[in-house]
Amino acid sequence: MERSYLIAGNWKMNKTPSEARVLAAAVTKMKCGANTRKMIAPSFVCLPAAAEAIKGSDVILAAQNMAAFESGAHTGETSVLMLKELGVRAVILGHSERRHVYGERDALINEKVKLALAHGLDVILCIGETLKEREQGRVNDVCFGQLEGGLAGVSMEQMARVVIAYEPVWAIGTGKTATPEDAQAVHAACRGKLAALYSKKIAECTLIQYGGSVKPDNAAQLMAQPDIDGALVGGAALDAESFAGIAGFNI
Ligand code: PEP
Predict the structure, then answer these.
(1) Which residues constitute the domain of residue 219?
(2) H or E segment at 34?
(3) How many domains does the chain fold into?
(4) Dihedral angle, C-alpha 116, 246, 145, 152, nearest 10 °
(5) Strand pairing partners for 125?
(6) Residue 212, ligand 1, Cβ within 6 A
(7) 95-150 pLDDT, tens digit each
(8) Which atom in ligand 1 lies closest to the alpha carbon of residue 165?
């Protein structure tokens, strides 16, 4: 079956609201090839400026995280209801920086995944091994555990709104990219795990993005792999020209 591609820019803690407005407006003008969608994930405070800049375009607005609760005494957190009111349609959850810098575990990520889906947001669930785990030969174990933990209680129907992003931690922001063949092997294994958790059909329909130092000059090779359905892009999404080079990988 033919899946679409999703190219998502995770701006992390970069860009002020006025800079976000300019970059978001530039993204609306970028041409994607057939079957490819564009998404941007600015920081929380940049969401209103970005939402205004992409109004009426085909760019999808995403958040980089959200609270595991709807509302209440959670100082410093941002709720799904707040995000929805700003026009956010998707949320990145379980990013390796959330896992490894802020100590988020699968159980917390799973609460967020379920809450986002229950409120109608799409979810990009990030998974991926550290260098140590790779060297120990535990890549599949780690990724399968994160899939199982992050998706616990997510229904078959809800899986239509879940995208998986395989992001080997050692490749994020380091300039090191998994070879297309290595990435493909993990993507295929994760698709197999989704088939075991859900069904072959759901596994075949689920987009699995690759993330980790994706650039215009390696995007096409990565996307040419049969199980790689797009990219979650950090550094290269902060520059309009390089993001355009990735979003337009097939034109
Ligand atoms: C990311 O933050 O998800 C990411 C993949 O970053 P980079 O492209 O900079 O490696």
Answers:
(1) 5-247
(2) none
(3) 1
(4) 20
(5) 93, 164
(6) yes
(7) 999 999 999 999 999 999 999 999 999 999 999 999 999 999 999 999 999 999 99
(8) 3
